[in-house]
Amino acid sequence: xxxxxxxxxxxxxxxxxxxxxxxxxxxxxxxxxxxxxxxxxxxxxxxxxxxxxxxxxxxxxxxxxxxxxxxxxxxxxxxxxxxxxxxxxxxxxxxxxxxxxxxxxxxxxxxxxxxxxxxxxxxxxxxxxxxxxxxxxxxxxxxxxxxxxxxxxxxxxxxxxxxxxxxxxxxxxxxxxxxxxxxxxxxxxxxxxxxxxxxxxxxxxxxxxxxxxxxxxxxxxxxxxxxxxxxxxxxxxxxxxxxxxxxxxxxxxxxxxxxxxxxxxxxxxxxxxxxxxxxxxxxxxxxxxxxxxxxxxxxxxxxxxxxxxxxxxxxxxxxxxxxxxxxxxxxxxxxxxxxxxxxxxxxx
Length: 348
Prior knowledge:
Structural class: alpha/beta
Largest sheet: 8 strands, parallel
Number of domains: 2
Low-confidence stretches: none
CATH architecture of the largest domain: Alpha-Beta Barrel
Order of helices and strands: EEEHEHHHHEHEHEHEHEHEHHEEH
Number of strands: 12
CATH superfamily of the largest domain: Aldolase class I
């Protein structure tokens, strides 16, 4: 199954769709958001993704913050106060979409409320991303499913049963093109918690393209996910990990994002076509690395090439060693000198 997002085709034997997750790492600044778009484009990502929400519609005024948010932001503020400072206006999202198009990168954003779904649809995002925390928010899923666009669903914190319920609900309400992302919702996620094999489970269960949304430190795990078949990779990035805000510390910096993209493209080039045969480079070295049947002593014309007169040495320009028993029953057509590589025209 192939799904098109913008000009990119996602599916088997297609390049990995790499989403640079800017999220809220703009800290509420449109200027910083534009710089994040610049960095994502320069790194070679396929898409840059933000988060669209209205704090009043997403969280109560007294909601607590996650532990990682308490460590990376002020302990005195509520979750509402934290995310209120990270809002961008509707007009800013419109401007960022246009800016991303000028930079040649696909613009995406995750809606956290129904009003934001309509805004992003109006802007013209080519796909909707549903975050892990909204997988049981069926009213939001219904709103998104009714838009005729591909959907990327993250499955962090979910059981297979919950994923099944969400997928069935999305399809019931019109979703036709669906991508599932395995995810471990922890910031940063410990390596032992990643469970990349869950991607295979998702693919087997739902027969849709699958990928991986990464929250581990560094770039090793998303690269491994691609080697295991991930068709989409999502990774948080920031301009500077030392900036204040909830997600900067668990994000890549621009040079790391670029290194991840390059490493993923290298892995893709290494996949090949699956045909087991020597590469062009191997053909050139084969005669140097392999061995031939070689005379172990001078062999006069007409004498049989007994095995004690033969040895095996490089280069591989003569008769292959696998024919040594056959050659030992043959005679020399002309004198063969000691240490001479034996070829078929020298024996009869």
